Amino acid sequence: MTGTAPAPFTADDYRARMERAARTAADAGLAGLLVAPGPDMVWLTGYAPPAETERLTLLVLAPGRDPVLVVPALEAPDAAKASGAPVLTLRDWTDGQDPYAATAALLDASGRFGISDNAWAMHLLALQKTLPGSSYASLTDALPMLRAVKETAEVELLAAAGAAADATFEEIRKVPFGGRRESDVAKDLADLLRDFGHSQVDFTIVASGPNGANPHHEAGHRVIESGDMVVLDFGGLRDGYGSDTSRTVHVGEPTDEERRVHDLVREAQEAGFRAVRPGVACQEVDRAARAVIADAGYGEYFIHRTGHGIGVTTHEPPYMIEGEEQPLVPGMCFSVEPGVYLPGRFGVRIEDIVTVTGDGGRRLNDTTRELVIVD
User: How far apart are alpha carbons 189 and 183 in whole angstroms?
Assistant: First the structure.
């Protein structure tokens, strides 16, 4: 898709982001940043070029220098409409010219640069050939927290996306589950997300009965039966910012064990949420949720991290996982989503998006975390 970011940010907002990114790169010992089409470019400039194009498009950021967007001439008119365009220098090139030579002229010939993880290999290799003394580091490895701390307006856009996902859950719990295929309910979820303002649906997991033991099960042709536990996990982008929530419902009355496991996951999710506060290491959120499940004897059945960051993508740093010592900072937004997955039987997951506040955390999802009974 080509165009501009729909979020309400100004040229000054994008200028501040690009200046901060350049400073952060310098602090990390980098000569600058090379940003390819994708989420980072949208976040930094408001411009969403066609990611599938083979023509080089590259944002060049370096401390003390004006930002430059190298862009194919045929894409330049769209780039000029981007919200961040007034604070960018556009350097266009036409087919038949060497875009790598034009880009190299902007770079320190012996510098080390951060480059987008999703940059095409052909572009990186051509730059290396043009500037043999240069070197490159993955942007996520070099600056993992670049987008992690959200501005106030970003948090509110995430809150609006979360509210839309909540509205979707409130409606989906009213539809029939029993006797229908997982794929039918998944379509209902996708339609509802769009009805509530999502422009992009990234995933609609509907995992019934034994399929619920697979955290990333793709909704298929299995017919949902009375007595099934059903894991619902769905989200996408609304106004350029992500939603991602999970709730587990039951078709008809659950067994005592199913209720017990659901209550356990709900308690673990609450423990993870209550661990959120400024200065706490990300891994402590994981530890808090995981301890509840492990103490109950189900530790081996919690088989994924407790959470992931969210913003202009639905999965990004920071990650709530053992070994991540990055301290939480007000404005960080991420999921808290423990689960228990019993192979061949059923699974349970409960997920909210949480933002770090000055003294704790704020949930961006507000639907009930109790076990919901559906038809």
Answer: 10
CA 354, 355, 361, 365 dihedral sign is negative
Calculate the CA 35 to chain-centre distance.
18
- Give the single-character DSSP code of 327: B
Q: What DSSP designation does 360 have?
A: S
Structure tokens at 226: 């009375």
Give me the DSSP letters along 37-60. Answer: TTHHHHHHHSEE--TT--S--EEE
- Round to whole Å and give the CA distance between 226 and 254: 10
First-to-last alpha carbon distance for the chain, in angstroms, is 39
In this model, does residue 4 exceed pLDDT 90? no
Task: Give CA separation, 150 vs 145, 156, 157, 182, 241, in Å.
Answer: 10, 10, 10, 35, 11
| DSSP strand pairing (316-320 vs 307-309) | antiparallel
Residue type, 219: A
Q: Which of 91, 74, 82 is nearest to 15 (CA)?
A: 82
Angle between helices 256-274 and 282-295 (to 10 degrees): 150
Q: What is the pLDDT of residues 282-319, one digit of tens each?
A: 999 999 999 999 999 999 999 999 999 999 999 999 99
Amino acid at 12: D
Task: Put residue 109 in one of left, alpha, beta given phi > 0 → left and psi -120 to 50 → alpha.
Answer: alpha
For 364, the enclosing helix (H) or strand (E) is none
**pLDDT tens across 162-208, in order?**
999 999 999 999 999 999 999 999 999 999 999 999 999 999 999 99
- The one-letter amino acid at 89: T
- With a CB cutoff of 8 Å and minimum separation 6, the contacts of 254 are 229, 262, 371, 373
What phi and psi, each to the nearest 5 degrees, are found at residue 258? Answer: -60, -40
| Token couple for 99 | 């875009």
Residue 246: how many CB atoms within 10 A of its CB?
26
For residues 307 and 317, what is the distance between their CA atoms, to the nearest angstrom? Answer: 10
Distance in angstroms (rounded) separating the CA atoms of residues 147 and 312: 9
Who contacts 227 (Cβ-Cβ below 8 Å, separation ≥6)?
209, 251, 252
- The structure's pTM equals 0.94
